[in-house]
């Protein structure tokens, strides 16, 4: 812990109580402070006390269901925007870099990145941008340590099995444009996207995806705070990860 982290953590404890960051402190102990599921072995940080549940009901969390409902209600216009952007603004999409590995058959159009909205994207996908801003950013449901982007897998693309960094955020997929032959596997359970509907899963569990269809598959991915985290924990985790990235030269 750097002095900056210590000072920030103490300020949070003063405001929210001495035990408000106990789970974050346990996470930082040697060994991570809690047992993890075997299929979370590749995750770097596991916050104790988060349920070991790979798949979640998208409308099963009162905090997150308004986000899900807003995106699903806007799916028709979001799909129209995506189709127009893919046809006329392909330069807005980039090869996706997943932990420094660039994948040419995985394209991304970012709406939120680096702790803020990508203003340029409002020109290409204004409805999606507005829904994200109003339902997730202004309400502070989005995890500012991560991102939101249109994720397009080209025909034949495969995302290899992997765990993401931690369990204190959760991944929402709005199925925007889904051809036959596409699926995602999380913790050994394979599901397909239903166009216009959302999937919600804990991506600290090993997961993989594939497009065996004949045209691109696109979902809108939103990294949200896990609903089992608290406000003081979220504040502390932002300080912690931001400082670690600064020290590692990632910011």
What's this model, at a glance?
The chain is α+β, with helices and mostly antiparallel strands and 251 residues long. The chain has 2 domains: 3-41 and 230-247, no CATH class; 55-225, Jelly Rolls (Sandwich). It has helices at residues 3-16, 22-27, 65-73, 75-88, 121-124, 126-137, 231-247, and strands at 55-56, 94-98, 101-113, 116-117, 148-153, 158-162, 169-177, 182-186, 189-191, 198-201, 207-211, 217-225.
What attributes characterize this protein structure?
single chain; 251 residues; 2 domains; 8-stranded antiparallel β-sheet; 4-stranded antiparallel β-sheet; 7 helices; globular; alpha+beta; 27% strand; Jelly Rolls; 30% helix; 12 strands
User: What does the largest sheet look like?
Assistant: 8 strands, antiparallel
Q: Write the H/E string, N to C.
A: HHEHHEEEHHEEEEEEEEH
The coarse overall form would be globular
- Summarize model confidence as the mean pLDDT: 94
Structural class: alpha+beta
Tally of alpha and pi helices:
7
Number of strands: 12
What does this protein structure show overall?
The protein has helices spanning 3-16, 22-27, 65-73, 75-88, 121-124, 126-137, 231-247, and strands spanning 55-56, 94-98, 101-113, 116-117, 148-153, 158-162, 169-177, 182-186, 189-191, 198-201, 207-211, 217-225. It is α+β, with helices and mostly antiparallel strands. The protein folds into two domains: 3-41 and 230-247, no CATH class; 55-225, B-lactam Antibiotic, Isopenicillin N Synthase, Chain (Jelly Rolls, Sandwich). A hairpin with a 2-residue loop joins strand 8 (182-186) and strand 9 (189-191). The model has no long low-confidence stretch (mean pLDDT 94).
